[in-house]
Design a protein that fits this description.
Order of helices and strands: EEEEEEEEEEE
Strand content: over 45%
Shape: globular
Distance between the termini: 37 Å
Helix content: under 10%
Radius of gyration: 13 Å
Number of helices: 0
Number of strands: 11
Mean pLDDT: 97
């Protein structure tokens, strides 16, 4: 199982980024996919989830972030708009495959003027 994130970078407040997580090694379409983030000195937090039941978001990103997936490309995306300095973090994609969980290497997002 491999998860590879991309798309991070430096962006000004109010700007946008789209993160991608390309996966392999499992039947992508069958599983819920998640985006987490971890800011310096803070615990990793769940940002967004996409599953057959729909999508869910942390309160802090609702209305600004959108999670989506392309099952033909085995890829999950996180569109981030109206970025704030507090969105600065390393962003990770995640999948839970019994009996464990798998993570990508993370991609750094820095929101700063």
């Amino acid at each position: 199982v491999q998860l590879v994130e991309s798309g991070g970078g430096l962006v000004q407040p109010g700007g946008s980024l789209r993160l991608s997580c390309t996966t392999s090694g499992f039947t992508f379409s069958r599983y819920a996919m998640k985006w987490f983030r971890q800011a310096p000195g803070k615990e990793r937090e769940l940002v967004a989830v996409i599953s057959s039941g729909g999508t869910n978001y942390a309160d802090s990103v609702k209305g600004r972030f959108t999670i989506s997936r392309d099952n033909a490309k085995n890829t999950v995306y996180l569109q981030m708009n109206s970025l704030k300095s507090e969105d600065t973090a390393v962003y990770y994609c995640n999948v839970a495959l019994y009996p464990g969980q798998y993570w990508g290497q993370g991609t750094q997002v820095t929101v700063s003027s």
